[in-house]
Amino acid sequence: MRLLRMAALAAALTGILASAGMARTVRWAASGDPNTMDPHSQNVGTVTMVLQQIYDSMIQRNRQLGLEPGLAAAWRQEEPNRWRFTLREGVRFHEGETFTSDDVVFSITRALAPTSNFGIFVDTIDRAVAVDALTVDIITKAPDPILPNKLASVMMMSRSWSERNNAARPQNTRQREEMFTTRNTNGTGAYRLQSREPDVRTVLARNTGWWGWQVPTNNGNIDEIVFRPIASDATRIAALLSNEIDFVLDPPLQDLQRLRSQNALRVLEGPEVRTVFLAMDTARDELLYSNVQGRNPFRDLRVRQALYHAIDIAAIHRTTMRGQSVPTGTLFPEQVNGWAREEDVRLPFDAARARALLTEAGYPNGFEVTLDCPNNRYINDEQICQAVAAMWARVGVRTRVNSLPLGPFFAKIQRDDTSLYLLGWGVPTLDALYSFQSLIATRNGAQGDGIWNYGRYSNPRMDELIQRMKVETGDTRMATIREALHLYREDVPSIPLHHQMIPWALRSNLQIPHMANNQPYFRWAVMN
Amino acid sequence: MKAFFDSDIWWSFTRSPVVVLSAIVALVCIIGAVFSPLIAPHNPFDLASLQLMDAFKPPSWEAEGDPLYLLGTDDQGRDMLSAIMFGARVSLMVGFCAVIFSTVVGVTVGLVAGYMGGKVDALLMRIADIQLTFPSILVALLVDGVVRAAVPREVHDQIALFVVIFAIGISNWPQFARTVRGSTLVERNKEYVQAARVIGLSPLRIMRSHVLPNVMSPVLVIATLNLSFAILAEATLSFLGVGVPPTQPSLGTLIRIGNDFLFSGEWWIAIFPGIALIVMVLSVNLLGDWLRDALNPKLR
């Protein structure tokens, strides 16, 4: 008997040792660190890239960004305003709670709360009702054909865990609030959060009990994920070259050539569904950060056009982006439903015209303004801002670049504490409405409308078109989007720059599908 | 003037070609830096003059170089030579101000401690001792960090230059204080000081008019050697991104920017500011060394 026990112990020990020796760890880096671990507080790719490993949504994205069952095994539009979701059985949160329909009701209600930054994904939802433990009905205010698309971005939390930890509503990032969910997570996902040191290191460990490992397409074999933000370009690339990390999400563009020539490394390339643009405060009567007194130059269409004309996008494309961008004159790239080639036309680069427009608008000597700019969010974001500032200086608009790391940057613009800012906007739903509604619609307190419109642009005609986009279908809807795109070109609510390309650099022994939403899904990552 | 050219110092200066050379180099650096707005080929602060299409031009002697830009251009099309001249101006300005600051603080503390003696001396010297246990760059980082946390960002950008000067200056005063205290202890007991005390002069007046002039020569040496330390400290802080504001790039800031392009073959963006920094610090150091020897009566 004793011998048997010893043998069992020895076997167990060998097992542990073997698995310890075999543990596959991916160490990866990006320039920015997530500014929260709360799943409904910041609709920002840098946050999502960590949280989507930890939390599941009812509906998930497949490798082609299509939809596939997540925590909901099936869903159906029972009535125009009622969707029924049948949940997966036997799913557990990382801390042991069983996942039920009550958690879905809780999570959706939480995403609807005023401090949520995810209202855009639940804007049409009136309420969620638990029918039984594994069935949920979602009642919408109006028929919403793309509801499943939106729900793919709403992560599911545990009601009992959240309420126990005073986190029943999302963290208020604008007010720099700190709460339990800022640093702690409890999802149902493939990985659980093992340790979190903001700006230093975030370690995730494989959740062996994840339901998804039964699904054949989730063939990932990674046991541990270590994320390290490394802001300096040179340090990040040195870490990759010296084998200190395995994967860089945003390698500096200037180093791609060198990385491609390395045998031990690979560069995956492709476009991202993300458009970088400049937006202006068009609401205030006087700008917060400018020397113009008593009026707001950005309310004048001619000034907006002048700034647009002054940008030499070809130079930015060639020099700042080293060819890794697609210059654009519209709000979203080709992959998004509603895009029209005829409306993707820029105002031409024409400094003389820009000066003439400024003079006409009453600013013959230009003016001063501050451009708020992130320095670790988008590819070469700070360099783009500096380049634009130089171009505007040439037509007389003296621009001070205020560059900030993404945490303080988002908090600043989300308080409307800005006159001019650079933003990049991805489109997870792959539909035009998402961009129009978040960025261009008047902010009216309703869920989603103008939720990221921090220049508070407002145009009744545009609003009417956006409201129509929500309810129309088929060709009428396409015509409405087309008209809105045309109005966007004419009224210049923001100045589009380009869609960014997103090269990923990784060691050759690591395989991970390159995604157009710039999200690494480690459930599909294989390390040899 | 004639007295100066007849002096020992001038004689020892002319005797060493290395010292003459480093004096010339230092002078060129200082003139180039101080008059950079007048003599630099471009103005890197004038945004309107930048051409993005001219970015990443290699030095003019390379195949793709442009004779307009002798040392090439950086990622925004700024002329490296002009950027270095303007950067050296900021570096030198911070260096000089920081040294003056630590000299004033250190000499005052040293004089008071040495002349007063007793508890005042003990207290002041223990403070200096405590500070000497911290590496000075750490003290500078600490000061900068505290100010950064204490004042709002917008205000900080405006006072950043003064913060750096203060941070570097405050991290270095104990050296001055200890030297001056030592010399003051010696001078205090000499007859001329005793005589001054007997005729009833105030301690302040004795310290200022009688002791101070006689303890200044070692201070001059330390100040020269400290100038190179201060310039390096500023470059270090700026390289770490906590120094001067990015709108006034110093040599350290330029090296930090260039660092991002070292791997990609655009070496000139980091190397030239680096060389400028080395040359400047080296020449100042050599001058300081020579001054120490020249002023040391034992070596004559």
From TrEMBL, chain A:
It is found in: Periplasm. Residues 1-23 form the signal peptide. It holds the Pfam family SBP_bac_5. Keywords: Signal, Transport. CDD domains: PBP2_NikA_DppA_OppA_like_2. Residues 67-444 form the Solute-binding protein family domain. The keyword Signal applies. InterPro entries: Peptide/Ni-bd (IPR030678), SBP_5 (IPR039424), SBP_5_dom (IPR000914). PANTHER family: OLIGOPEPTIDE-BINDING PROTEIN APPA (PTHR30290:SF9), PERIPLASMIC BINDING COMPONENT OF ABC TRANSPORTER (PTHR30290). Belongs to the bacterial solute-binding protein 5 family. This is ABC transporter substrate-binding protein.
